[in-house]
Amino acid sequence: MPTIEASPAESLANCPLCGEPLRENPEACSKCDWVTGYQEQQGFSLNRRDAGAALLSLAVPGLGHVYKGYNTLSLLMLGGAAVTSAFAVAFFTIVFPIPASPLLLASYWGFAAIHAYAAHDYNPPAGEIVWKMLAMLIAGIVGAALTIALAAKFLHFAI
Length: 159
Known about the structure:
By secondary structure, this protein is mainly α.
């Protein structure tokens, strides 16, 4: 014998959040903020600020985090890039000479970009963010110069 199933809106007798009876409108609660579809997963959408943060983190790890308002995390990401670069240069040049260091560096840069894209956006004021981003960019350039100098030193000793 076929059965007729009720739709989710018709089968709800009480609000799932506050327990108020849903008599007048089964699609929304009159006492609280509940509506049909509350806390359902939304589809993927490309946000310009998220994409911008990911691109900034591809340039310098941590720069996208500054853009989104994560000041402490941005310094940790930049420090992690320095440590990863130094490890890649030292380990894969002297100890285990295989061309895996670009793969390690690309993995870290990719992780930083994906994390910057997925992080919640705190939207700091525009005037404040410019100086922080410039400071991070300068720190990234200095870190890259030090990494290149370190690589040149290790390659010179390895040859």
